[in-house]
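Service request form, structural biology core

Requester: graduate student, group of Dr. S.
Request type: structure prediction, single chain
Budget code: on file
Notes: please return the result as C-alpha cells.

Sequence provided:
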Amino acid sequence: MPSALFENLALQGSKQLIPAFLYGTAWKKEKSADLVYQALNCGFTAVDTAAQPKHYQEDLVGDGIRRALSKGKVKRQDLYIQTKFTSISGQDMNHLPYNPASSIEEQVHTSIGSSLENLRSSAKTPDLNLNFVDCLVFHSPLPTLAQTLEAWRTAETYVPHKIRHLGISNVSLQTLSSLYEAVNIKPAVVQNRFYPDTLYDIHLRRLCARHSIIYQSFWTLTANPQLVYGTEVGLLSHQVGLSLQEALYCLVLGLGNIVILNGTKSEKHMIGDFEAVSKTRAWALKYPDDWDRLLAAFKKIVGDVDDPIE
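Core staff response, request fulfilled:
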C-alpha cells in the first residue's frame, strides 16, 4: 500500500498528488491569511479549508494563497486546495454562506460559488483555467442518505472543470459504503478523526484502500495521547531524533494510504514536521528491518492487521 512517508499519494484517476501534510485552517480567525502564507513558504503544498464561517475564514485563506502565488512562492498547478460544503447542522445560524431556507441543491450551488470566489487564484483578473478547487469535501453526511445523495449529485455537476474531486468527512463505514455504491463520481478522499473511539477507523480505512480513497486523518495528536507517549513512538523518536509528536505523525503515515491534517501555527513546527518525514524516510530505507519491526508493532496497537477487506 502506498505510504505518504515515502511518496506523495495520487488521487484516483488523476495525476493530482497529495503530500504527507495538508495545512489545516480551522480556528485561525483573523490570522488565517498570514498563517496560510507562512505554511506555503515553509513547504506545505496542500491547504484544507471550509465554507463554514463558524470555524473557518475561507476568504482569508484565499488571501494567503493568492499572496503566495503573486509573490512566486508557489504555482497553482503545484497546489492542492480543498474546501468543504457544510450543511446547516454544522453552521452558525447567524452567519451562513447560503440561505438556510433554500433547497439542498441551491445551498450546495451557493456554497460552491462562494468557495470558488474566495479561493480564486487572482484578486484582479482571474484566469478561468486556474479558478477551481482540487477537492470539495462534504463536512459530514446530511441527516438522511437521500439528502446526502441530492447534495452529492449537485456537486457532481461541477466535476471536473470547477471541482476536480469530491470527498466526505465525519463519515461512518456504512454511510461511506452506501454513498460509494450510489454515486457516479466516487469519493476520492475521506477525512475522519483517527482515534480509539472508532478503533482508528480500521474497517473504514480498509474500504478506502480497496477503492483507492485517500484517508485524511485529523485530531491525530490531540485525540491520541496514549499513542504519543507509547513505546513505539518513543523508540522511533529516539532512533531518528524526533519529537514524540513528529514520531507519531511518521508512524501514522507509515500505515499507508493516509495523509494528515496539520494545523500548527508555529513556523518551527511547519518546517520540522516535513523534516521529520524526510529523516524517517532516510532511516527506514537505511534500516528497513528495524523500521518494519517498529511499524508492525504500531500496526498491532491500532488494529492494522493483514486481514482481507470485507
